Amino acid sequence: MTIDTAMTWLIALYIFMLAAFTGYEVISRVPSILHTPLMSGSNFIHGMVVVGALHALLTATSPFGQAAGFVAVALGAANAAGGYVVTDRMLAMFKSSGKAGK
Amino acid sequence: MLAQHLTGLSGLVAAALFIFGLKRMASPASALSGIVLAGVGMVVAVAASFLILFDLDVAARDHLATNLALALVALALGGGWAWRRGGKVEMTAMPQMVALYNGMGGGAAAAIAAAGLAGQETTGPLLLAVTVIGALIGSISLTGSVIAWAKLDGRIAKPWRFAGQRLVNATVFVATVLVGAAAVALHGGPDGAWLAGLFFVGALAFGILMTLPIGGADMPVVISLYNAFTGLAVGLEGFALQNPALMIAGMVVGSAGTLLTLLMAKAMNRSLANVLFSNFGDGAASGGAAVHGEMKASDAGDAAIAMRYASSVIIIPGYGLAVAQAQQKLYELVKLLQAAEVDVKFAIHPVAGRMPGHMNVLLAEAGVPYDIIFDMDEVNADFPNTDVALVIGANDVVNPAARTDKSSPIYGMPILDADKARQVYVIKRGQGKGYSGVENLLFFEENCSMVYGDAQAVLTRMVQAVKDLGA
I need a labelling partner for A65 at 20 to 30 A (CA). Which of B147, B301, B368, B433 fits? Predict the structure, then answer.
C-alpha cells in the first residue's frame, strides 16, 4: 500500500492561505505589552527552517550540496535555539503583582 | 515508508504546537508555557527529520556517514553558539539579537535554495521558480538583518546615502530578478550554475543596499519586516521541499510579521514606504510653530515630594531610562509611592524602546508587575484625572504638537496625553530635542517642570527624598 504524499500546488495554496489567516488572527490577539517576546517567539518558529535544512543536508550528494546544507543547518539551528532562549528569558520576567512578592 | 509517515506526523504535531503556543501568548500569564510547548514541537520535528536516513536514495546513501556527521556538527555549532549568546545578552541589546537570529533564518532558507538549485534532479519550473523567490527574500533578509544588527549595535553610526540611490537599488533589484529568471530557465544547463551564483550575489547585495540608507530610529520597523521576510522565505522553501510543516510555520510568521510591521509603522504615524524610502529621522527635520513660554527647572526632591503626596501618578518611561539603566531605581521609587498609597501606573507608547514592546521587557526585567503597565489606548483617558505625570527619557511620544501643530513633522502621530495631567515632571539630561528634531511643546507648558540630570542620579535623589519624609 502506498500513499502518494506529493502535494499538488493547489493544496499548497490552501495551506498557505489558511496559515496566513491563522497567523494574522492569532497574533492580532497578542497585547502590545508582549510584542517583543512575540517577535522573538515568531523568530523561533521560523527556526523550523532547520528541519528543511536537515533534509537538504542529509540528502546531499555533491560537495556543494553538503556545504550549502551544512551552512543551512548551522544557521537554522542558531535561529531556532537563539529565538527560543531569548523568548524564554523574556517571558520568565513577566510577573503580576500577585506573584511578584514584595 | 513508515519513516516517511512518522516524519510527516511529527511535522503536523509541531505545527499544531506552534500555533497553540503562539495563541497562549495572548496573555503574559500563559505566555511562558506557550513558548515551552512550541519548543517541544521543535524538538520533535528536528528529531524526526533524522528518520529520513532510513529512506535515502541510493545516491545519497553513499554519503550517509559524512552527511550525518556534518548535520550533528552544524546543529551543535549553530545551536550551541546561539544558545550561549541568547542566554547572556543584555535586555537592552535584545533588538539587535533578534535581528541577528532572524537574518540567520533567512540565510538558512537561502542556503536550502542554493542546495536545491545545485541539485541535478529534474524538478518542474514551478518548484524552481518558488525556490528562487524564496532564495531572493531569504537573502535580502540575511544581509539586511546583519546591517540592522550593526546599526542597532552602534557598529554603523550613520545612514549611508548618496544621490540616485533609489535608482541604483531599483536597478540592482530588477537585474537580480532577471538573472534569477534566467537561472530557472537554464537550470541543469552549463550556464545555470553561474547564473544562480550571480543571482545570489545580487540578492545579498540588495539586502545591504536597501538597509544602509534607513535611519537607526526606523530599525524596529525594519527588523519586524525582515522577520516577516524570513517567514515567507521559509514558507516558500517548505513548498519547494513539499513540507507542509515548514509552509505553515513560515507563513504564520510571514503574516504575523507583516501585521506587526504595519502596527509599528502606524504607531509612528508613517507608512511602510515612508520608512523604507524616505530620509526621516536624521535630525534635519525643522518647522513647527513658534514656542511660547519657557522651560522651568525643578529640583528632584521637590518633584519626589509632590508625587509622594499625590493620589495618582502615571509614569511614562522612554528609551532614555533604559540607557541610564535606571529601571531598578525607578521601581524602588514606585514601591515607596505604593507604600504611601499613591496609585501608580506605567503608560507605554507603542514605539517606546527599540522595538515594539521592548520597554515592557525592560520594566519586567526590573521586576515591575505587568498589571500596573498600560498601553496608550488604555491609559490616555486617565491623564486629566491624574495628579502627576512623570516623563523619563521620552520625548516625541508626549509632544502635544503631534495633536495641534499641522506644520510639525510628527503631526498626527498618536501620543500619550501627559500634558493633560495636573502636573508634569520631565526627567531629561539637557534641553536637547528628540530624535525627530522637533521642539517639544509640552516642556514649555504652564504645568510642566523639568528635572535635569541623568535618570539614574535623579531617581536616586527622588528615592532618598521620599525616604527622608519617613513612612
Answer: B147
